[in-house]
């Protein structure tokens, strides 16, 4: 009876946190989602056969392309577009892109919570014991309180799609004898890569499992990969968009590294202010008065930390070399650990390790990395929570500390969120190395 009462109290506490987060996020989403606007305008430009990566809004342009932080500055020849999502992600927005911006914003918040709910359900389905299910719910509740989640909602960001698709891929890829799951896993994999190309490295350790899967499974798995890749490369319009995207990324890196002329400061909201497409300044101000969003973002890139510690700038070549060296070291360490055990790593270990490799590339990015990037850790944290063992308690205590550092804003501590994020990376690497042969046979 006591155990049942304790579980009910735990569920009640989770619901309380969830209810508070929904109320808070509803207010934040009413205070103008600046980053959502550039996704919407990017989608509209692509629909109208205009490259978003070379576009800057002018006074004579239609309001449907207007973004207050993507306006051409008079006399400037060195501005870089503020539209940063991939061509493929813009295509995903096509069904809603022509709706008024405020309507899209109202849709976006439920979409974010739907993705979170699916991630939570996957974690609960992977868990087999009550303590594991409790760890999954604690992880989700803690994530809702982090600065990363709050900023992600306030800005209308899309990075939750990364852990969502990675978790779906893991869930389907485990079922090695189901061809429907093979197709679904392949679709999740190629969508993930087309949304964020550097997620390709997440799949690198999964090559260890290729011999385990039947040839027919692999053929079905690669079918959606081939179809979407062919479409992206064969279509002249798509190929042109991806080439523009590649060029844009190079210009963006130069701007962020201050190796060229950085983009001009965002223009004032001169036309027509924020009273457009359903947004009204008085509503924004009223929401802010009720529950203001205070930005506590940190830039946790390696190049930012290097400059803060050594008071000198690095460059892209050094960053890329250091990133490759770090990944090579981790791959060698991973291979050495499992070779010494004379056993193949399990799919859980591979997924945790692969995601850590991807996040290493994220942390070494030469582009300023805002707080909402941290939201991507939801995938490996849920996988770790769903496979929790009492023998791993000390590592999970440290993960709890890392999450607390991402929740709290400590006046006397510098970059506590960044410290917490690097601690997450370290603990997940440890868990990937001690997971051993696959314990995740609950298929």
Secondary-structure blueprint of this entry?
Layout (H helix, E strand, L loop, with lengths): L1 H27 L5 H14 L39 H6 L8 H26 L3 H15 L2 H9 L5 H13 L5 H17 L19 H20 L1 H21 L24 H10 L11 H9 L5 H26 L5 H17 L14 H9 L6 H15 L8 H19 L9
Characterize the structure shown.
With 443 residues, the chain is mainly alpha-helical. The chain is built from 17 helices and no strands. Helix 1 packs parallel to helix 5 and helix 14 runs antiparallel to helix 17. The two termini are 31 Å apart.
List keywords for this structure.
62% helix
- Strand fraction equals under 5%
Oligomer: single chain
Number of helical stretches of at least 4 residues? 17
Helix percent band: 55-70%
Arithmetic mean of pLDDT: 89
Q: Indicate the low-confidence ranges by residue numbers.
A: 259-272, 439-443
Question: What is the terminal separation in angstroms?
Answer: 31 Å
Question: What's the main sheet like?
Answer: none
Shape: globular
Number of DSSP-assigned strands: 0
Radius of gyration: 22 Å
N-to-C series of helices and strands:
HHHHHHHHHHHHHHHHH
Q: What structural class do helix, strand and pairing data support?
A: mainly alpha
């Amino acid at each position: 009876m006591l155990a049942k009462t304790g579980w009910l109290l735990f569920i009640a506490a989770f619901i309380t946190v969830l209810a508070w987060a929904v109320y808070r996020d509803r207010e934040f989403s009413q205070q103008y989602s600046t980053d959502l606007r550039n996704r919407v305008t990017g989608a509209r430009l692509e629909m109208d056969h205009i490259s978003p990566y070379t576009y800057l809004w002018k006074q004579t342009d239609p309001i449907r392309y207007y973004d207050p932080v993507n306006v051409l500055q008079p006399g400037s020849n060195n501005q870089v577009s503020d539209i940063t999502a991939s061509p493929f992600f813009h295509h995903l927005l096509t069904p809603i892109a022509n709706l008024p911006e405020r309507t899209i914003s109202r849709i976006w918040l439920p979409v974010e919570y739907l993705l979170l709910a699916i991630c939570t359900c996957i974690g609960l389905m992977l868990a087999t014991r009550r303590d594991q299910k409790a760890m999954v719910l604690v992880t989700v509740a803690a994530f809702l309180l982090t600065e990363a989640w709050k900023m992600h909602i306030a800005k209308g960001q899309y990075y939750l799609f990364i852990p969502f698709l990675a978790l779906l891929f893991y869930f389907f890829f485990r079922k090695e004898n189901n061809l429907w799951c093979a197709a679904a896993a392949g679709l999740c994999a190629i969508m993930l890569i087309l949304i964020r190309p550097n997620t390709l490295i997440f799949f690198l350790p999964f090559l260890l499992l290729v011999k385990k899967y039947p040839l027919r499974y692999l053929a079905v798995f690669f079918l959606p990969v081939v179809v979407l890749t062919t479409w992206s490369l064969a279509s002249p319009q798509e190929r042109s968009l991806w080439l523009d995207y590649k060029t844009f990324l190079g210009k963006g890196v130069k701007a962020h590294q201050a190796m060229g002329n950085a983009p001009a400061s965002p223009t004032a909201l001169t036309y027509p202010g924020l009273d457009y497409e359903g947004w009204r300044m008085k509503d924004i101000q009223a929401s802010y008065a009720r529950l203001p969003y205070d930005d506590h973002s940190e830039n946790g890139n390696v190049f930012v930390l290097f400059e803060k510690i050594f008071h000198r700038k690095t460059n892209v070549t050094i960053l890329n070399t250091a990133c490759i060296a770090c990944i090579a070291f981790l791959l060698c360490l991973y291979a050495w650990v499992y070779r010494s055990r004379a056993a193949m790593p399990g799919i859980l270990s591979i997924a945790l390790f692969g995601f850590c490799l991807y996040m290493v590339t994220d942390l070494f990015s030469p582009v300023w990395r805002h707080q909402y990037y941290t939201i991507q850790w939801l995938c490996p944290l849920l996988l770790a929570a769903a496979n929790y063992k009492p023998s791993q308690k000390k590592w999970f205590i440290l993960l709890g500390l890392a999450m607390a550092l991402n929740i709290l804003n400590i006046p006397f501590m510098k970059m506590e969120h960044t410290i917490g994020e690097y601690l997450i990376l370290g603990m997940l690497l440890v868990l990937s190395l001690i997971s051993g042969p696959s314990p995740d046979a609950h298929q």
